[in-house]
Amino acid sequence: MTKKLLLVAVAVTLGACASAPRVTTVQPVSESADTPYRNVLVVSLFKSFDMRRYLEKELVTQLEEKGIRAVASTSMMDTRTPVTRQTFLAMVDSLDSDAVLVTQLVSLESAARMKDMNPESTYNFRPTYYYNVWSVELDEYVEPQTLNLKNTLVLATQLFSAANKESVWGIELESRFARDFDKGPDYSIIVDEAKAITSQLSRAGLIAR
Predict the structure, then answer these.
(1) Residue 20 included in any domain
(2) Are 172 and 155 in contact (CB under 8 A)?
(3) Measured between alpha carbons, how far is 159 from 119 in angstroms, rounded to an integer?
(4) The pTM is what?
(5) pLDDT digits (tens, 9 = 90+) for 141-185
(6) Total structural domains within the chain
(7) Of 60, 85, 165, 187, whose CB has the highest number of CB atoms within 10 Å?
(8) What separation in angstroms does the CA of 60 have from each of 83, 177, 187, 207?
(9) Are 195 and 25 in contact (CB under 8 A)?
(10) Residue 197 belongs to what domain range?
């Protein structure tokens, strides 16, 4: 019997497996809320400017689909612009916004484990010149292990009235998703977060329909 073992350098990665964002905390609509809002400045506060831009872009898309005028703060700044209250207040004045939607990271927890990949094998059977004796060849393709991450992401979102500069509503959303370490970012998570946030805004009667 001859056995050949071939190592494959590139692992086959799996897509993310995610559950829909779940509302874990709600700040009820304030009595001082001057609703509904029709002109919203969208702000996200993460260390990564790119992640801020991606989430703001999706939130703007979702709000515009509901007939709301929305502008992403990252469309009016770059990585050198100070992320301060004064910067965003200046944007509100420039856009004549009536509300500011602010999203920030509460927590991101990851649990990692090594995962075995599925090997593939092929067998070749051949008769020999000897009675009841067979030649068997096994080709086994073995993939290296990959690191699988199970993540729990919590984002907090607050809506501020531009008129009284106070928070009039807020929620926390929790998302759980699994992903292989060697695969790039999955932006469907951002899309799901944006849809969940705007859906909650609409249900609370905070934006014009």
Answers:
(1) yes
(2) yes
(3) 51
(4) 0.74
(5) 666 666 677 888 999 999 999 999 999 999 999 998 877 655 666
(6) 1
(7) 60
(8) 19, 24, 15, 13
(9) no
(10) 2-120+143-203
